Fold this protein.
Amino acid sequence: MRIEEVELPDPTGHQVVVREIASGICHSQLHTIHNPRPGDIVLGHEATGEVLAIGDQVTNVAPGDKVLITFQPRDLRTTDRMPEMARVSLADGGVAKSSNIFTWSTHTICDDQYVIAVPPDTPMDVTAPVGCAVLTGAGAVLRAAEVQPGQSVAIWGVGGVGLNAVAAARMAGADPIIAVDLDEAKLDLATRFGATHVVNAATTDPVAAVRELTPGPAGSFGFRGMPIAGVDYAFDVVAKPQSFAQAFAATRNSRNAVHGGGTTVVVGVPMESFELPAIEMLMNEKQIRGTIGGTAVPGEDIPKFVEWFKNGDLDLDALVTSRVGIDEINEACQMLDDGKVLGRSIIEF
Ligand SMILES: [Zn+2]
């Protein structure tokens, strides 16, 4: 990546110009960095800031508002309008594009669908990851899976996104909440976020461990007398073939016409195809679903997550484990790639 100085235009229509305060550094951007692309791009998709100027069609925010920026449109249920994709004219005459927004920048210009006002007393540093990490992790639990009190969950990968799935599972009343990771320090952090049990998959078979923690009712049995053990929901935040296979295997078996099988929710970005024992979908009525951005409705969910933070239910101070300047962005991405970021890194402007 290179840093350039450019001139942003005055906003028109649904555009909003924001002076940024902080932006998170999300793992999914590494896929974009490492893969071929057609031309220059601008990156970053979660941030906080203050509105400087708005186009004449913008009604949800005003200059001076403190805002959170997200890559997920704030509510597509109320509009048929496709949000505008952000683009920046470069000094050499070229154009750098994003498929939604860009936030690794002191200022940004984006569609008002990606901007949500928050109360002016909101701390604007540690809330930077709300727009992706919190939305994706917590949304997967609340919106995609709709976890109910007493349901069992296991979360594969408890980094910046997975920790928020743990916190949301606690808020939903899930029990048990099992965190699975290869990193002991991440598992310790998961306990702080509400995990009732942790499994280090580097030293323990996570499928056996999860099934042992979630036995079905005594005497219950599934198809062909199989035991019912397993979680109602397994969240695969890692989204690699091995984590997916483990998560799928750790979901519970069905008891025909009494209850269905468990659901594996794919939360991370799968860069490879997965194989699965499809017979399990038939015999044990197991389900799979994907979710992008936690299937969240940011217009409703971001104010709620900010409330959780203010009430002490979501420890964003613990989620943010490293802070860098924009000039350190390449080093910060390398650290993330090397697995050296415990929770989330943020850029402070
Ligand atoms: Zn992200």
